[in-house]
Design brief:
By secondary structure, the protein is of the alpha+beta class. The protein has two helices and six strands. The chain starts with a strand and ends with a strand.
């Protein structure tokens, strides 16, 4: 088994995508920072989708997501976007956190990490 890293961010010390065997891990998927929560959720899934393309996958190959919110009461907004973006919703964990982000309270409101399956079914 080989491990491959893509979308490497050396300044912040993380890989955006790691392919390990039949599984692909994405981290720190964000987008539209500073805009509304819905726009940030959409942006995070856009970011994840672009990363999936790097390894020949789509959002439909995502089996698990971890969603971090500044305000966990925004979960219903997430659910609406998931119903629109996924044929079948992935397994999910949602937690709240205070982001240490340069945008402060009005900056980053959502971050999504994902695990996709690349093997044959």
């Amino acid at each position: 088994m080989s491990i491959k890293h893509y979308d490497i961010h050396e300044e912040y010390a993380y890989s955006g995508v790691v392919e390990a065997g039949d599984f692909v891990y994405t981290s720190f998927c964000v987008g539209n920072v500073g805009k509304s929560v819905v726009e940030q959720i959409e942006g995070a899934f856009d970011n994840m989708s672009k990363r999936m393309v790097l390894v020949g996958l789509t959002l439909d190959d995502v089996v698990k997501i971890d969603v971090l919110f500044r305000d966990v009461w925004d979960i219903p907004l997430l659910e609406k976007v998931i119903k629109k973006r996924f044929k079948v919703p992935p397994a999910r964990k949602t937690i709240s956190t205070d982001f240490a982000h340069v945008g402060g309270l009005e900056g980053l409101k959502v971050q999504i990490d994902g695990i996709a399956y690349k093997g044959k079914l």
